[in-house]
Specification:
The complex is a heterodimer. By secondary structure, chain A is mostly helical. Chain A contains 17 helices and two strands. Chain A has a single domain, classed as Cytochrome c oxidase-like, subunit I domain (Cytochrome C Oxidase, Chain A, Up-down Bundle), CATH 1.20.210.10. Chain A is about 65% helix and about 0% strand. A two-stranded antiparallel ribbon of chain A has the order 1-2. In chain A, helix 4 runs antiparallel to helix 5, helix 9 (about 250-285) packs across helix 14 and helix 12 (about 360-380) runs antiparallel to helix 14. The longest helix of chain A has about 40 residues, at about 75-115. By secondary structure, chain B is an all-alpha fold. Chain B has seven helices and no strands. Chain B is elongated and about 75 Å long. Chain B starts with about 30 loop residues before the first helix and ends with a helix. Classes of the chains: A mainly alpha, B mainly alpha. At the A-B interface, helix 5, helix 7, helix 8 and helix 9 of A face helix 1 and helix 6 of B.
């Protein structure tokens, strides 16, 4: 018996554009989210490369060639740079990282992990995706009309009264994307609460679900606040209500408060699901129950709660009072504790595990390294004294790229490689995939480690030019960005290649994971399960064993509930 | 799959399960379906509360900076209309609550009557809001950035017909002030009206959406769709309507009753 793809599955049971565009199937929506997010990631990545090209040397590429683009003077060329970094940031934050894992991987995997047929509200789910598309169109409109030069943070009063770029297209796009995110979170929250199968208590849920749950809480409670902040900004810009615009007596720092009340928790919308993916990968590729299950689960919830009380650390130099600064600085450290708990637990899970280094595990291990650096440098920025020095320098840029790209995006890609066999029923080339991961990892470190040094030497962020003393850091950073681009392109190539030509069919369970999503065929049938499968612990790896004929793992029956027989390999197969 | 429906209130699944009529295909029991819908609605209401919260924070900040000018500004709002609107919304909330009970008991004619009263009250609220808005628009009690606003620091005030009473009153009020004080007072008053229009406008949009969903539920009630085993839609719409009412319960004193 060899691995075969089932005749009817969710990808082929209906055909045509309409069957995809109007689908209610969480798996199809997850797949569409994934490709959409990848497309947006490529667009945002192009802007990142343009930024790095400009900064490769002082008086950089864009400026030197300003004449080519029809810019008569340095100033308008420099303005173009503002558009590059703004569009890079806005696209990556709103269109890529926030929906990346919860909407793409969460949609695809979460209902199956619960043994459910779908999410609680399939129509709302589809609506979320259509909102994402609408928001993306708004961003493209901003791009093709007057661009956007406010920075992704849209700070007032520049955004309300001075910028002549397409601020309203972008803010309304982000507003719509915000509601897409809220509805996804709401769907996940209710699905997790109400659609768990018999026997799946809260502490038998896979940790990915805990992470998505904590994320959903943030999405529901924080995202509406940026919705109203952006709406207020839009109304301020059009009607002049005088809330933010100091020329009318408004308070621009108020915008920063309301903005960061969302946008700091949003950082955890980006990182929490990534931590969930890493928890799955580390446990399953170590073939060992995850160390400290409960503390990882609770730390997700703790991060979600703490995330709401630390926003002021973005505003240490905004003129808020000293006492507020001290309080926010102290509170900020509370987030470090649950974050560190997770990392320690991952490392402890590796200890004496039976580690298999498949591609997803390469990404998971990369994330431990990258999140370690990203997380620890965050402490420097949470510390009031050092932050005053490092604020708005490249140190900050490097820090949040380690967290948002090094941790969130690498986890996202690791998750794609993990669930790819389930999504499309094919295995990819391990060699090419690992090569992509390795090059991306090297390129990433090359890009952002020098930025820590440049930043601690005082190089400010968002400037189109810099002193010659920063040249060496920027040069290597730009080279690193290209290496990173090559690595990610190879990763994408490995995935696309697996769909072309002679496909290598995936078994139902290539990784030996025990969560329910691996119990249906690859790709899954349209309705996942006829009946909810029986639930065991999500990391009891003795419940599956390798089968050479299947080229994958198969469930073994713990006869009469005695798992020892299964461990000895004498249990009958199902 | 495309015909299978997430809609908790209507269609049933398309693939041979032994499903009750109103149960969507991906739920196991009606109870699970109802609980899911209810939980989702409460979560959505939380989202709504936080959506309004940004504006309440703006209101609190601006008012804390200039409490006496906010108090002066509030005296230009019409407390009588505000109070009538409060009563109108309270009545509508009561009838909305009653309509849930009617649906649960299967009293279709009472259900239709109560939904209709709710809808009429919502419409009356908007009509009264229109009267208030149009008066302020003609007088020029508008956000400071708008051209016709009497608070716009850059354009001169042009009286609109006979509507100059408020302007003259303010002139008298600020007559003893230094020019700097007068500018400060006038722009702060403008900010009050900025917040006023924003808060009540956003609330008004929610009322309009409420009218839409109440009308939708009323149509379905007319088709006799609701009964003891299918009242989720009525329940959820009523929950939403209570929130709209609750927001106004905060807006009325914060805007109208602070002078």
């Amino acid at each position: 018996m060899t691995t075969t793809t089932p005749d009817v599955h969710y990808l082929n049971h209906e055909k045509g554009f309409k069957s995809w565009f109007w689908t209610l199937d969480h798996k199809r929506l997850g797949v569409m989210y994934m490709w959409s997010v990848i497309a947006a990631f490529i667009l945002g990545g192009i802007f990142a490369l343009l930024v790095r090209m400009e900064l490769m040397e002082p008086n950089g590429y864009v400026l030197e060639n300003a004449a080519l683009y029809g810019f008569s003077d340095k100033l308008s060329a420099a303005d173009l740079y503002n558009h590059f970094f703004t569009l890079h940031g806005a696209i990556m934050v709103f269109l890529v990282i926030i929906p990346g894992i919860p909407a793409a991987l969460g949609n695809f995997a979460l209902p199956m992990m619960l043994g459910a047929k779908d999410v609680a509200y399939p129509k709302l789910n589809r609506f979320s995706y259509h909102l994402w598309l609408t928001g993306a169109i708004f961003f493209v409109m901003a791009l093709v009309t007057k661009g956007l030069d406010t920075g992704w943070t849209f700070y007032a009063p520049y955004s309300t009264s001075h910028s002549d770029s397409a601020v309203i297209w972008a803010t309304m796009g982000a507003f719509i994307l915000g509601f897409s995110s809220i509805f996804t979170g709401l769907n996940m929250l209710v699905t997790i609460h109400k659609m768990r199968p018999d026997g799946m208590t809260w502490f038998k849920m896979p940790l990915f679900i805990w992470a998505i749950y904590a994320t959903a809480v943030i999405q529901i409670l924080a995202t509406p606040v940026i919705g109203i902040a952006l709406l207020m900004l839009t109304v301020e810009r059009t009607l002049g209500v005088g809330i933010f615009d100091p020329a009318l007596g408004g308070d621009p720092v108020l915008f920063e408060h309301i903005f960061w009340f969302y946008s700091h928790p949003a950082v955890y919308v980006m990182i929490l699901p990534a931590m969930g993916v890493v928890s799955e990968l580390i446990a399953n590729f170590s073939r060992k129950p995850i160390f400290g299950y409960r503390s990882i689960a609770f730390s997700s919830v703790a991060i979600a709660i703490f995330s709401f009380i630390v926003w002021g650390h973005h505003m240490f130099v905004s003129g808020q009072s000293d006492i507020v600064n001290v309080v926010f600085s102290a509170l900020t450290f509370s987030v470090a504790v649950p974050s560190a708990i997770k990392v320690f637990n991952w490392v402890a899970t590796l200890y004496k595990g039976s580690i298999s280094l498949d591609t997803p595990m390469w990404y998971a291990l990369s994330v431990i390294w990258l999140f370690g650096i990203g997380g620890l440098t965050g402490l420097w920025l949470g510390t009031l004294g050092t932050d005053i020095h490092l604020h708005d320098t490249y140190f900050v840029v490097a820090h949040f790229h380690f967290v948002m790209v090094g941790s969130a995006i690498f986890s996202f890609i690791g998750g794609i490689f993990y669930w790819w066999p389930k999504m499309f029923g094919v295995m990819y080339s391990e060699g090419i995939s690992k090569l992509g991961c390795a090059i991306a990892f090297i390129g990433f470190n090359m890009t952002f480690l020098p930025q820590f040094v440049a930043g601690s030497h005082g190089m400010p962020r968002r400037y189109f030019d810099y002193d010659p003393q920063f040249e060496v850091y920027n040069y290597w950073s730009s080279i690193g960005a290209m290496v990173l681009g090559v690595g990610l392109s190879i990763a994408l190539y490995a995935l696309v290649r697996s769909l072309m030509g002679e496909r290598k069919p995936a078994p139902a369970n290539p990784w030996g994971a025990v969560t329910l999503d691996w119990q249906c065929t690859s790709p899954p049938p349209p309705h996942n399960f006829d009946h909810a499968p029986p639930v065991d612990g999500p990391y009891d790896h003795e419940l599956v064993r390798w089968n050479d004929e299947l080229n994958g793992y198969e469930p073994v029956d713990p006869v009469d509930g005695d798992p020892n027989l299964a461990r000895m390999g004498s249990a009958k197969t199902v | 799959m495309t015909t299978a429906s997430a809609d908790a209130h209507g269609h049933h699944g398309d693939h041979g399960h032994d499903h009750p009529e109103h149960l969507a295909h991906h739920f196991d029991t009606l109870e699970q379906q109802f609980d899911s819908c209810k939980l989702g609605m409460w979560a959505f209401l939380l989202t709504e509360v936080l959506f309004f919260s940004g504006l309440f924070v703006a209101y609190a900040t601006l008012r804390a900076n200039n409490p006496e000018i906010f108090s002066l500004a509030a005296s230009f709002l019409d407390t009588k209309w505000g109070a009538i609107n409060t009563v109108v919304l309270l009545v509508s909330s009561f009838t909305a609550a009653m309509s849930v009970r009617n649906a649960q008991l299967g009293e279709t004619s009472k259900l239709k009557r109560n939904l209709l009263i709710t809808l009429v009250c919502a419409g009356a609220f908007m009509c009264i809001k229109y009267v208030e808005y149009s008066h302020k628009y003609h007088v020029g009690l508008l956000p400071p950035g708008m051209e016709h606003s009497m608070f716009n620091p850059e354009t001169p005030y042009i009286p609109h017909g006979d509507h100059t009473g408020e302007y003259l009153e303010l002139q008298a009020h600020t007559a003893d002030m230094t020019p700097a004080e007068r500018v400060h007072t006038m722009t702060t008053l403008g900010r009050f009206f900025g917040v006023y229009f924003f808060l009540t406008g956003l609330h008004g949009v929610h009322v309009l959406i409420g009218m839409g969903v109440i009308g939708w539920v009323l149509m379905r009630a007319n088709r006799g769709e609701f009964g003891p085993d299918n009242f989720t839609a009525v329940d959820l719409v009523a929950l939403y309507w209570h929130l709209v009412d609750l927001v106004w319960i905060f807006l009325f004193p914060l805007l109208y009753l602070i002078h």
